[in-house]
Write a structure and sequence with these properties.
The complex is a heterodimer of chains A (about 70) and B (about 325). Chain A is α+β, with helices and mostly antiparallel strands. Chain A has helices at about 5-10, 15-35; strands spanning about 35-45, 55-60. The radius of gyration of chain B is 24 Å and the shape is globular. Classes of the chains: A alpha+beta (about 70), B alpha+beta (about 325).
Chain lengths: ~70, ~325
């Protein structure tokens, strides 16, 4: 078995990747609506495995809401 | 609430929610970069891990932090689930706050009582088309030692009066837009660092209107008042000096509107985005772009204005 074939075996099936992407998208949408979270955009400058050139991603971080007594 | 406070005291992570470390954690999870490999910057400075993002000085909702990795990801995942976002571009917003009436209708209809947005006009293209013709006829006139009766001189005069009319229209539309923005209390548009960083920006009638307040220059907020007004004046003068001089150099029309003591800087919209820059840096000098043609042009302009040629790295180091 060649290296390429081995890697192919290690990869999850495409439908599972699509399913995971959809679930992740739903999760992100839920966070977008959640007032306890805020989106912080992060621009990736250097070329990387996820793409070439400038890329922008949104990350949701928990925000401080309410008053401490 | 008391319970939450107890948790917050006992666990430092809960007392520092929404920090840069949270972002780094997410990046590590999604892209496989170790904490040591991650550098996150804003305004020329690397952000420490424990800083709460909402508490960063002059933080604006929608603003982008800049991530620069050190090396390749240590544990790169085979699949990237996080999807890329579309960055804001002027082309996406240039039709905002425009009416559908023609420019003649707008001129006739527009009074202080009639609150109508100006129609969309591509001011930059219109200006450059006129300047192209003006440069052509000016050359002819200069070569022929023309008198007032020659056809070239007549064309040149007509073109210059057209240009004057265009500038008047721009100033009229800018004043009208400012009036409308104040009257309607229009919400500002977030354009990040497009058309300058900081301050409230509004898009209307094919122009961007910046309130001369809280502009950010070299990572410093200049606030309100004389300094901000002087910066706006400098922008105005520099662009006026450069406009129409060279073919291929498009300089947007601009003007300053003083509305009951509050100043606004209006500039024609240019079709730019975060990815269209070819010379200089829009990432706080973390990435400096250098196009050969643009550099030659910069040197030509430097000679014209008797400016010293300086390596951009030196200027950015001073900032």
């Amino acid at each position: 078995m060649g290296v390429a074939e081995e890697q192919k075996d290690l990869m999850p099936p495409i439908y599972k990747i699509e399913q995971a992407k959809q679930e992740f998208l739903q999760e992100v949408d839920a966070l977008e609506k959640d007032p306890h979270y805020m989106r912080v955009n992060v621009a990736f400058l250097h070329d990387g495995p996820d793409g070439i050139g400038r890329r922008l991603y949104g990350f949701h971080v928990r925000r401080q809401i309410g008053t401490f007594f | 609430m008391v319970l939450f406070f107890e948790i917050a005291v006992s666990n430092p992570y809960y007392s520092l929610i929404g920090t840069v470390l949270d972002i780094k954690h997410a990046i590590r999870q999604d892209f496989g970069y170790d904490f040591k490999q991650q550098r996150i910057y804003r305004n020329f400075k690397e952000l420490p891990n424990d800083i709460i993002i909402e508490n960063i000085k002059d933080w604006v909702k929608g603003e982008s932090l800049i991530f620069v990795p050190h090396g390749k990801p240590a544990n790169a995942p085979s699949v990237h689930l996080r999807h890329k976002l579309n960055e804001i571009s002027i082309v996406d917003v240039n039709q905002s706050n425009c009416s559908n009436i023609t420019k003649e209708e707008f001129e006739n209809f527009s009074t202080d009582d009639n609150l109508v947005w100006p129609p969309y006009r591509d001011w930059v293209r219109e200006t450059e088309e006129l300047f192209e013709k003006i440069r052509y006829y000016r050359k002819l006139v200069d070569n022929n030692t023309a008198t007032i009766e020659t056809i070239e001189m007549s064309h040149l005069m007509n073109l210059e009066s057209e240009l004057k009319k265009l500038i008047d229209d721009f100033e009229f539309a800018a004043a009208k837009c400012v009036h409308m923005i104040v009257q309607w209390r229009t919400d500002p548009v977030f354009l990040d660092n497009l058309h300058g960083k900081g301050g409230n920006k509004y898009v209307a009638g094919g122009m961007v209107i910046r309130e001369c307040k809280n502009w950010i220059y070299c990572a410093e907020n200049v606030g309100e008042g004389d300094l901000a007004y002087k910066l706006a004046d400098n922008e105005l003068r520099a662009q006026n000096l450069l406009r129409g001089l060279y073919s291929g150099v498009y300089v947007p029309l601009n003007c300053i509107v003083d509305y009951f003591g509050v100043r606004y800087y209006a500039e024609a919209l240019c079709p730019i985005s975060q990815k269209t820059l070819i010379y200089g840096s829009n990432t706080e000098a973390l990435q400096i772009l250098n196009d050969k043609d643009a550099e030659n042009l910069a040197f030509t302009l430097a000679e014209k204005f008797n400016l010293k040629k300086v390596n951009p790295l030196v200027i950015l180091a001073v900032c």
